[in-house]
Write a structure and sequence with these properties.
heterodimer; A: 382 residues; FAD/NAD(P)-binding domain; D-Amino Acid Oxidase, Chain A, domain 2; 2 domains; six-stranded mixed beta sheet; 19 strands; 25% strand; B: 419 residues; alpha/beta; 9 helices; binds flavin-adenine dinucleotide
Chain lengths: 382, 419
């Protein structure tokens, strides 16, 4: 176990290892501490969809620039992460939703995104199996460069590349405390000893709250159980991820043929509950077969749970804490932290290694919750 | 295979109905055509005890629980009750009280008749061709929820089952061996060979290499001979034959050689088994170079042990431990067969590999104690339980019971040591 490092990253999910890779590449001495194994948190449970169609400019911009990085990530990292761009199809069910879509598309286009409104007749050319009447579709938006990657391979690829650049990754190592002096981070206590450092990145996912508490910081994040279902494999029929903000559903057909998707659990309460619920299973299978009636006789193969780490405005908390120096927030991804990881790691690295700040980091700082004007991200599913 | 437009049907175990359209599907199924019916989720509420698996342990558990007045749902993934017993055409070995001399299939029939007895009409429901696949959260403190898939006319139905107590009598899974060619058609587990011959009346092949000389390998080897199939030899990695002497003697009398300290190295053939290479092992179970021998055969039957099925128990989160004598990871349990989670019971091979005779008594114990725990005829159930315990002890007392006796003693010790 190392005793000293430039930066200690807590959490071996995609954001922790992506940041480790970028920092190590910039020449810093980095240690990642993961209490279980790599991708054992939300990363290994996620849908791994990559979407740029958001309602707030920050998320849209982070996602657009992340996709640009995803496009050559496999070759950068020297390992195939199965990145595929089948597009995201967002179904609108009402006039009100259509108007919100028009507004979003305008903002997204301004940021340079290739996205457009589809009328009813065009939807079936993208996903032919949808029952448009059954789901009362009135329109949709489509962005062809949205897509998907394999979350395990992405994590392992980042981790391997980080190690090549000299980073140390210690799995099965739990962080138990953080020491500060004069409001500066000085060391991290773990189940395997203490490491001296002046930078700590809190990328502990749903447990980031507990890490922040170790230095006396209160974060507003709340854990929500989320479930995903995967069917048996079928011949390839469509490539797009289908989502609906009205129903909260998302699903796509993976390259291997299975349909994978999720939906919010009816009457779900906040908390770290891990057991799968029958109400999800019922609700998901009923809604999914309303969207695609042909799936009625297709079996489910697997079903699992994970956690969203949700903030009050459904946007991540990023950047250095205003009171505890050297403490970097990297959490609160509210269900979309996989797709943002390339840019998140880039921005945090620029800040730590080159002292470069950015408007996005400023606007996504924890201190935004002290004000009363929060910009809410509305385009959330699952 | 695709049946009536429904993809991915396992036609090897699905019933053949009049007028069905069966089609070979590509590696990936085409999308189903039929989408007319809708009602595919239902709920079964207010059962006292869910029993998962209708082998000898599950059937006895159901009969006991119902005798004391509990309502029971007995679920099995096969089309008939009986578990392993329906494959067993040989006469059982062991004590008279526990049906020695009777064939397994007859024991199953007898238990099935009892389940159908009028006395239990309102107490026992049997759901066949249905799989209990998952444990789900329930809002009610003293209830457990399970997801069940029930198949009817090749279509799956989702059922939510809510119960007060659950007994796992799910049996065991066969062990596999790793060697080149083990995925060629013609390499079978002993269970599949038994099912083909004894349940479906289909010959698995013409010339068989049997791997494993435990009771299962020996009995299935003899049944193959009875079906007119040539058994080239039996190879066994251990230095001694694991099964009972009577079963080994039957094979030897028919001049089937049993090679101890021998194992299988590989199987060859382009698209099905054409033969196998066997090899002698040294004192450390390593292959001896140069001892390879080619066996010409079209079938390799693996009878290399069983591992208790515990996945649902693990999902519930009961305390587990590795007990090699019992066949692998098992759910720790007390003498009443209750696990570390209240009202969750285990019995039969699922609680440690043993025999049908002991599986039946364990099933009785679990059934009686689960009913008692729910408040049914507590005194009578207790008296019955004490009787069953004595029977179990007697069954395990002989020299043949040494291994399971050790296993169960170890489980008891681990149970008491839990934090
Ligand atoms: C069902 C589901 C579907 C999702 N779908 C998508 C999607 O389609 N697209 C998308 O972009 N995002 C999606 N997400 C969200 C995404 O998974 C997360 O935002 C992202 O994976 C977060 O990564 P992370 O590295 O920040 O955190 P995590 O992957 O949660 O990693 C945190 C790690 O920290 C470790 N840790 C915690 N405490 C300690 C400690 N004290 N010491 C050491 N280590 C510790 C944990 O073990 C864990 O491995 C989904 C999430 C879920 C649950
Ligand atoms: C070749 C051979 C010879 C044998 N000879 C003898 C002998 O002579 N004497 C003797 O006493 N014993 C003998 N046995 C052992 C005996 O067959 C087993 O010990 C006994 O059948 C175990 O009973 P069980 O009820 O625990 O499990 P099983 O009989 O295996 O029954 C379990 C049942 O549960 C079902 N099931 C499992 N999971 C699920 C699920 N999730 N949902 C729904 N259903 C499920 C299975 O399909 C199965 O039908 C022999 C075994 C073999 C293989």
């Amino acid at each position: 176990m190392k005793r000293k490092a430039d930066v200690v990253i807590i959490g071996g999910g995609v954001n922790g290892v992506a940041t480790a890779y970028a920092l190590a590449k910039a020449g810093l001495d980095v240690v990642v501490l993961e209490k279980n194994y790599l991708s054992s948190g939300a990363t290994g449970k996620c849908g791994a969809g990559i979407r740029q169609q958001w309602s707030t400019a920050e998320n849209t911009e982070l996602a657009i620039r992340s996709v640009q990085m995803f496009e050559h990530l496999s070759s950068d990292l020297g390992m195939d992460i199965e990145f595929r761009q089948g597009g995201y199809l967002i179904i609108n069910h009402s006039e009100k939703e259509l108007r919100q879509s028009e507004e979003n598309v305008e903002m997204q286009k301004r940021l340079g995104l290739n996205v457009r409104l589809l009328d009813i007749s065009e939807i079936l050319s993208i996903v032919p199996v949808l029952d448009l009447k059954g789901i009362k579709a009135v329109g949709a938006t489509f962005c062809p460069t949205d897509g998907h990657a394999n979350p395990f391979l992405t994590t392992f690829a980042y981790a391997n590349a980080a190690r090549k650049h000299g980073a140390t990754i210690s799995t099965h190592t739990t962080v138990t405390g953080i020491k500060t002096k004069d409001q500066h981070v000085t060391s991290v206590k773990t189940s395997k000893g203490t490491i001296h450092t002046s930078w700590v990145v809190d990328a502990a996912g749903v447990y980031s709250k507990d890490i922040a508490k170790m230095v006396g910081i209160k974060t507003p994040n709340k854990p929500y159980r989320k479930e995903v279902l995967a069917t048996e494999r079928l011949q390839s029929m469509f490539e797009a991820m289908v989502i609906s903000f009205t129903d909260g559903i998302y699903f796509s057909q993976q390259q291997e043929g299975q349909i994978v998707g999720g939906i919010p659990i009816p009457h779900e309460q906040i908390g770290l509950y891990k057991t799968p619920t029958f109400s999800f299973l019922r609700h998901m299978s009923q809604t999914l077969t309303r969207y695609v009636p042909l799936l009625r006789h297709v079996n489910m193969l697997r079903h699992w749970t994970g956690f969203y780490d949700v903030t009050p405005d459904a946007r991540p908390i990023l950047g250095e804490d205003r009171t505890v120096k050297g403490f970097i927030h990297c959490h609160g991804f509210s269900g979309h932290g996989f797709m943002l990881s390339p840019m998140v790691s880039k921005l945090l690295t620029e800040y730590i290694a080159y002292e470069k700040t950015s408007p996005i980091l400023d606007r996504l700082n924890l201190d935004r919750f002290e004000g009363s004007n929060l910009t809410q991200e509305h385009s959330v599913v699952g | 295979m695709e049946v009536n437009g429904i993809p991915n049907v396992r036609t090897c175990i699905a019933p053949l109905l009049e007028g069905v359209a069966v089609r070979m599907q590509d590696r990936l199924a085409s999308w189903p055509q039929n989408n007319t019916d809708n009602a595919f989720v239902s709920t079964v509420q207010d059962i006292d005890i869910l029993i998962v698996g209708a082998g000898p342990a599950g059937m006895e558990a159901a009969l006991q629980a119902a005798t004391f007045g509990a309502s029971v749902l007995l679920v099995d993934e096969n089309q008939r009750v009986g578990g392993q017993l329906i494959k067993q055409t040989h006469k059982f070995f062991g004590s008279k009280e526990e049906k020695a001399g009777t064939r397994g299939i007859s024991i199953a029939k007898d238990l099935e008749d009892q389940l159908c007895d009028d006395r239990f009409k309102d107490k026992i429901d049997v759901l066949l061709d249905a799989t209990v696949f998952g444990f789900y959260e329930d809002d009610t403190e003293d209830r457990y929820t399970f997801g069940v898939i029930s198949r009817k006319e090749y279509k799956s139905r989702l059922i939510k089952v809510v119960c007060r107590s659950v007994i796992f009598t799910v049996g065991a899974m066969e062990n596999m061996l790793l060697f080149p060619g083990n995925d060629l058609p013609g390499v079978y587990g002993a269970g599949a060979v038994q099912t083909l011959m004894n349940v479906y009346g289909v010959k698995p092949g013409e010339r068989v290499l049997m791997v494993g000389a435990g009771n299962v390998g020996l009995i299935v080897g003899y049944q193959l001979l009875q079906a007119g199939i040539k058994v080239d030899r039996v190879v066994e990695a251990a230095p001694t034959i694991g099964g009972y002497h009577v079963h080994a003697a039957k094979l030897r009398r028919c001049s089937v050689p049993i090679y101890t300290r021998h194992s299988i190295k590989e199987v060859f053939g382009a698209d099905c088994v054409k033969g196998a290479v066997v090899v002698e092992l040294d004192d450390h179970w390593n292959p001896i170079q140069g001892s390879e021998e080619i066996v010409t055969c079209d079938t390799v039957c693996l009878a290399v042990g069983l591992t208790p099925s515990t996945r649902l128990l693990e999902q519930i989160g009961v305390d587990m431990a590795l007990v090699p004598e019992a066949g692998g990871y098992i759910a720790l349990h007390d003498e009443r067969m209750q696990t570390s989670v209240p009202r969750v019971y285990v019995a039969g091979d699922s609680s440690g590999i043993e025999e049908a005779s002991t599986a039946m008594i364990e099933g009785k114990i679990a059934g009686a104690m689960a009913a008692k725990q729910l408040g049914y005829q507590q005194e009578k159930a207790q008296t019955a339980y004490e009787g069953f315990l004595k029977e179990l002890k007697r069954l395990r007392a002989g020299p043949f019971g040494a291994k399971p006796r050790d296993a169960k003693q170890r489980i008891q010790r681990l149970w008491r040591k839990r934090p």
